[in-house]
Every structure is written in structure tokens, then in C-alpha cells.
Amino acid sequence: MAGKEYVLPEASGYRMIRRLGSGGEGTVYLVCHIRTEQLRAAKVLTNIRENCRHELDMMKNLNHPSLPKVIDILEEGENTWLIMEYIQGCRLDQAVSRGLGKKQFWFVADHLAQVLVYLHSRKKPVLHLDIKPSNILLRPDGSLVLIDFGASIRGHPDECVNSGYGTPGFAAPEQQLKGALVDGRTDLFGAGAVLYYCRYGKTPDLDINRHRRSRLDRILMKCLEKEPQKRYADSQEFYRAICRARRAEKRKRILCESFGAGVLLVLSGFLLFSDLQSGQMTGLSISAESSIVTASGYGVMGEAGKFAGSETEAVERENAGMENETENKELTDKANVTGGREAAGVEKEAGDEEAEPEENGEKSDSETNRKEYSRLLNMAAGLGFVQAIECYRNASALFPADEEWYLCLIAQMTADGLFEESEEEVLKELIYSMQPGNSSTALELLEENAQSYGLVTYRLGLAYWYFYEGSGGKSAAAWWFQKSLASQENSSESWTSTAEILARIGSYYGMLGSTDMDEERLRIEWNYWTDLQELWRLYLSQQEDEKICCENAEELLSLLVLHAYDLRQNGESEEAMKEVISDIEEYLAEDFLTVDDTEPEKLKDMVRAANEAIERAFQD
């Protein structure tokens, strides 16, 4: 039986599309913001607690990719509407029922631990208090979003009193006692229960699972201790344990693969020796000087039988690096405090001036830090991305709120035309890292300068929109564009227009798939077409990156190929459509175009297909 349906306030500025679901604290609808045509989720809260409005206002100030962005709060009569970012994806319990792979498990564990570190390290810590699989969404790219803060409270230890909320099987024992004190360790119990559910497909049975002895199981059992003082002291300790366990599993996997490759090499050598003895050369070539056999790219076996250049060596190097992890962090912290060259791990360059006398120490330190900051960025530009990471890490420690290192990092990540998931991990580590002596992340410090924050988040949006290799790039980009625009009230920056258009285009993808009504579909397609054309003009005037321009041209041509007839129904003329194609052809003919040769050729094929589609659309 369908539950009660609710109607948005008349002056809300939103149009209802459909119901998404309902729970104990309210019903959620998919709505469209009329002015920007952005899809959003609207949750109507009917059984609202007395202090919940205060908590909702608190949520508006949270800023993390694993948390839903609260956009607005509307009140009408006894109902309160929470307008949030619309997250496309599935619930974690649904993903577990279909089977959660190891890689995705570690992705969930890592992201869940990170978002708890963020929540618990706020100036006034935020406790979620209802962490369970159905309150965790997975975007199409696998990234995690923790939702439903209906039970959340905030405050320091000894200030937070349990109000009796919590889900059996995932709630900590202290949540069963109304009036008991709760803190970050209460959320750690929920996180442990969720990860146990992901691993074993059921809620934890604490009385029969103490025998489990794997590293991961020990972490989960520690989170699930009945007494809070026996759990991890805080979420940062929990996050470090998860990171160590993930690295240990990776090392184990690589060692197993290397062992398998070693066995293969021995067998290959034995077969080769047998062939030589019998005089039968079965297609294997022998070098008289080195006698080397290769197997599946795992390395080579020399005369002395040593396995050289193997994954095993890489593992040993990784182990050595992890042993020095704490030392490296201390060096970074020292760089943030003193800005010294020793802390950054570099030698003093010839020609550097000595420090000013002590009375000018503050000015001298600032100048030294700035000089070191510039040197690190110049060094990074001449290195490969992996080698440049430490330069960016030290530069961000010196000046976390300076836009230059962000922009250099983004440019270097996308220079090869591909934004890889491994590069994304580095990006998130740097921008969400807590600065020593400061409870804010680097990105939060940058946000204090609206102009710099807007530009950086815009460039991040472009990186995800046009270069990201994984799924979910467009939705992640739309999130960054919204951040960018929110920081730029009445701004005249040229990129704000581009961000507005891309944010709207991002909403069209979901809207086209959510409606079966011809009239609505034609309206969306028309807006999509006009916005793509405006974006094309802006990119050309801004002399944007060639890959970005080619991607935009491809999207225009695809729309013509697939929907030329619909555009005609909307009133677009044949001449206007062909004029767009002519502009693209003119761009492709430019001598300065240096993108991969396959890109222009692909676009030329699409030009031919678009012209044919237009001719078919205007045949009487």
C-alpha cells in the first residue's frame, strides 16, 4: 500500500518528478530545480525531533565528497523539506546482495573511514549514530556517500547524550541505553558492523566470531568490542589500521603472483633444458650471451638463477617505504611549520641568500617559504607525476590555501589526456589532508578565498568531466561545478558561465532517462542543444584545451546524429544545424591542432554522419 504523498511548498522553486522511497524519518522525492534544471532529492521530514532543525543547519556546513550536499531547507506548516544533492547509484546492501568484490570492499572501507575522520575532527565533532548499509550509497564510479543524518548529534566527549536511536545489529551497545554518553567510538562500532556485513553478508555475531585471526577480522572485532574503551581510540587510528590492512593484502597478492610467476619460470627453464637435450627447439630463441627466459612480463631469470626486475623487488621497496611512512609524515609536518629545505628533503641551491638577522626573522621565514614553494612547483613540472607527488605534498604543506599548487597539480594530472583513478587518490589525499596544528583540510583553507576556491573547483570539474577514466566522472564534475558556482555570487569571472552551462548539461543526462513524456523530452533536448552550442562558443573564445574542445564538438555531433529530427520538431532550422557543423570543420582544419590524430579523424566521420542525419530529418 502506497504511503501518504506530499506536495512541495508553492514558492519552493522546485518541480516534483517522482517518489524515490520512504523510511522511518520521511519520504524522499526526485525534484527538478526550475531555474537551473538541476535534479535534486527532496526529503520531507514529518516526525522531526525538536533539536533536528539545529542539526539540519549544521549539515549545511559539512563539505566532503562522501557526504550529501544539503542545498536548502524549506519549512511549511508541520513539514520540513530537506533539499539535497541527488545521488545516482545503489544502496550498499543492494551491492552486497549482488556480490561485493575485494577491490570494491577496500574502496568502501577506505571511504567510510575517511568520512568518519572528517566528521569527528570538526571543531565540534559530528556523530552520525546510524551507520548501516542502507544509509550508504554507492555512486556508479564506486565512491561512497553516507546519508541520513536524522539521528546525528554533535558535541565533544562528555557532551553527547544518546537519544535512543540506532538500528539493531549495527548500533553500539551504549545506544541501547537512553541517556548514556556516546562519542566517535560509537560510530566506529557501526562502521565495523557495516564492513563485517560487506565481508560476510550478515550482521555480526559477536559471541562466535572471536576466533577469526586475519588482520582485517582483528580490525573488525576491535571496532565491535562491547565496551567503547576497548575499541580504537578514534577514527584516525581506525583509518590507519584500514590502510595498513589494505597494503598488507596488496603485498600478499603481489607476492602470490610473483611466486606463481617464479614457478612458471622454473618450469619454462626445465622444458627449455629438456628441448636442448633432445635437440628440439620448440620456437624458443636462446641468447648465447645471457640465456634469458621471460614469463608474462614478471621479470627475467639470469645465469645465476636470480629473479631480477620482479614484482618482489617492488614489494620490498614498498615495504621499506611504509616503514618510513611515519618519518615522511614528520618531515612534511616540519615543512609546514618551518618551511626549511631539510624538511622538504632537498639541498640548498647555489645562490640562495642567507637568512636575515633575527629581528627580521618573520619576514625572512615568509620569503624563504615562498622561494621554497616556487622551487618545489618548478621541480614538479620537470618530473613525472609519480615522482612529482612529494613536491606537491611539501608545497601544499607550506601554503595549503594557495591556488597555484592546486592548478599545477590538476594540469599535470590531465596533461596526458587521462585522469586516472590512481591520480585521483593522490588528489584526494592532498586536498582533504588535515594541516598540522589546524583542524581544517587544505580545501577548507582554500575556500576562505572565494575567487581561488571557485577557479580551482572549476578546473577540478573540467578534469572529471573530460579526462576521468572511471565511471561517474560527469556526476563528480557536476558536484565540483556546483561548489565553484556557490562561491561566486555576482562574479564576472569568464569561467563561471562555462561552469553554469556544464552544471545544467549534467542534469540533462539524468532527466532524459527519467521521463517517457515526448513533450518533456523535447524540451530537455532543446535546452541541451542550445547549451552545447553556447559552450562551444565559450571554449573557442577562451582558447580552451584542444581535447576539451574536441570532446564538446563530439557531443554536439552526437546530438545531431541521434536527435536531428527532434531538433527540427523543436523549430531548429537546417541552416542552423549545418552552421554548427561548419564551425566544427573549420576548427578541425586549424594547423595548430595537436591532439592525437585519431581524434580529428573520428570527428570527421561524425561530421559525415551528422550531415546525413540532418538530410534525413528534413526530407519531406
Please specify the SSE layout and strand pairing.
Blueprint: E1 14-23, E2 26-33, E3 39-45, H1 52-59, E4 70-76, E5 79-85, E6 90-91, H2 92-98, H3 102-120, E7 126-127, E8 136-138, E9 144-146, E10 153-154, H4 184-200, H5 215-223, H6 235-278, E11 293-294, E12 300-301, E13 307-308, H7 311-323, H8 325-338, H9 341-344, H10 361-381, H11 385-398, H12 403-414, H13 421-431, H14 442-446, H15 450-467, H16 473-486, H17 494-514, H18 518-542, H19 546-569, H20 574-588, H21 598-617
Antiparallel strand pairs: 1-2, 2-3, 3-5, 4-5, 6-8, 7-10, 8-9, 11-12, 12-13
Helix pairs in contact: 3-4, 3-6, 4-5, 5-6, 8-11, 10-11, 11-12, 11-13, 12-15, 15-16, 16-17, 17-18, 18-19, 19-20, 19-21, 20-21
